[in-house]
DNA sequence: CACAAACGAGAGCAGTGCTCTTGACATCGG
DNA sequence: CCGATGTCAAGAGCACTGCTCTCGTTTGTG
C-alpha cells in the first residue's frame, strides 16, 4: 500500500510532491494568478508539457494546493486545540481562533486562495468541501465539551434564531454540534463567520488607519463571540457585575 | 469647467466612459482576472494599443473600476439609509446591512474585487482607502443618532475593549463615531467586520450545506450585532425577559 | 521477448499585457 | 492661412501564458 511497488510509481509520486512543493512556493510568492505551470516546469528543469502528465490542467494543480492549504490550517488548529487541557474551554477557543489568524498571517496567499475570491472561471470542486469544515468542527468540539460540562450559559438578551433555521440546526446537531439549542448553533456559525471575516479584513488591509493593535482587537472580538455562544469568560475579562 | 472645451477633450472623456462601461460588463461576466484589455478594445472596435492612451495599464483600469464599485455600494447603502425615518434606528441598521448584502449578491465579481483577494501583484492604491470607509460611516451615523436620542444601551456582560485600542478609539471618535465609549466603537467595528464576513462567506460558498435560508440568518446576525453595540431591538425580535 | 502504457521533449496554437513606430488628424500660434 | 505641435488609432512585435499534439524513448508486464 504505502510502499509503492514499481520504481515508476515511486518516481511519479515523488515528482508530484516536487511539483506541488515548487508550486506552493511560487504561490506563496506571487499569489494564485501568478502561479504558472510553465514556471514550475522550468524550475524543475523539465518542459511544460511534461507537467501535464501529472496535473491535467492548471486548475487541478491549484485544487491540489487548495486541499493542502485546508489540511494545513486544519491541522494547525487541531494541534493547537489538542495541546491544551480539555477543561480550559475559553483558552482553547481563543487559541484555536488565534491559530487561524496566525496561520493566515503566515500564509497570506494560501489563505486568500481558500477564503478569498475564487479564481476566474474556477469553481471549487467537491473535494474542497469536506476539508473546509475542519476548523468549524474544532470550534464545535469546544462547544460540545462545554455542553457536557454543563457550563454553557448563552445570554438571553439576543434575538431568537429564525424558524427557517430549524432544519439546518437539526442536521448540524446530528453531525458536528452538541445537542444545544438552535440559537446556540446559529450563534456559533455567527462566531465562525466573524473569525474569518476579521482575518480577511486584517489581511486585505481594511483595518489600515482603523485598528493599530490588531492582535488585541482580534482577541477581544473572539471573546465577545465566545460570550455570545455562552462560553464562560476568563476572570480577567469578565466585566464587573454586582 | 464641466463643459469640456475642445471637441477632443469631450471625445476623450466619452471614450474613457465607454471603456469603463465595457470593462465593467466584462468584469461582471468573467471576473477580475478575466478582464482583458484586448477584449475590451475588440468590443469597442479599436486596437488594443489605443486603449493604453486612456489607461496606462491594465491595473489602472482595474483601479478605476474598483473606485466605481466602492462608490456604487456606498451610494446604495446611503440611499437606503436616507429613505428611512431617522428615528427608526434598528430599521435603518438592518436595511443598510441588507443593502450591502443585496449589492454584493447582485454584483458578485465587483464585490470580490473590493473585498476579496487582491489581484496578483496588485496593491490597493491610496485612492481606494477613502471610498472604502463610506459604508462604515453610514453605520456610524446610525450610532450617532442613537446616542443623540439617548437610546444606546450596550450590554454590560461583554469583555472590555483592550487598552491598546484607546488611541484608535479617540481618533475614530473625532472623525466618524459619536462620543461613545471605546467599547461601543470597537463593537461597532466588530459588527462591521461581521457583516462583510457573512457576505463573503455566503458569496464564496462557505454556507453551502450549512445554512439554507441565508437571508434570514443574515438578518439574525445583523440583529445580534445591533444588540451588541447597544441599539434597541424591534419588539418582535426582543426576547421574552421578565 | 514483445507489447502496451507511461514518459520527456519539442513544436505549435491562441491568447495575454505591453512597447514602439508609423502615419493621419486636430489644435493652436504666428 | 499655414506650418508646428501634440494627440490619436493602427499595426507589428516581444515575452509570456495554458494547453494540445506528435514524436521517439523508457519502463513494466503478460
Structure description:
The structure is a homodimer of 242-residue chains. Chain A has 242 residues and is an all-alpha fold. Chain A folds into two domains: 1-56, Arc Repressor Mutant, subunit A, CATH 1.10.10; 66-237, Tetracycline Repressor, domain 2 (Orthogonal Bundle), CATH 1.10.357. Chain A has eleven helices and no strands. The first copy, chain A, has helices at 7-30, 37-43, 48-51, 58-82, 89-106, 108-115, 129-132, 134-149, 166-175, 182-203, 214-229. In chain A, helix 4 packs antiparallel against helix 5 (89-106). The first copy, chain A, starts with 6 loop residues before the first helix and ends in a 13-residue tail after the last helix. The model of chain A has no long low-confidence stretch (mean pLDDT 90). Chain A binds a DNA duplex (30 and 30 nucleotides) through helix 1, helix 2 and helix 3. Chains A, B: This is TetR family transcriptional regulator. Chains A, B: It comes from Thermopolyspora flexuosa. Chains A, B: Residues 36-55 bind DNA. Chains A, B: InterPro entries: Homeodomain-like_sf (IPR009057), HTH-type_TetR-like_transc_reg (IPR050109), HTH_TetR (IPR001647), MT1864/Rv1816-like_C (IPR025996), Tet_transcr_reg_TetR-rel_C_sf (IPR036271).
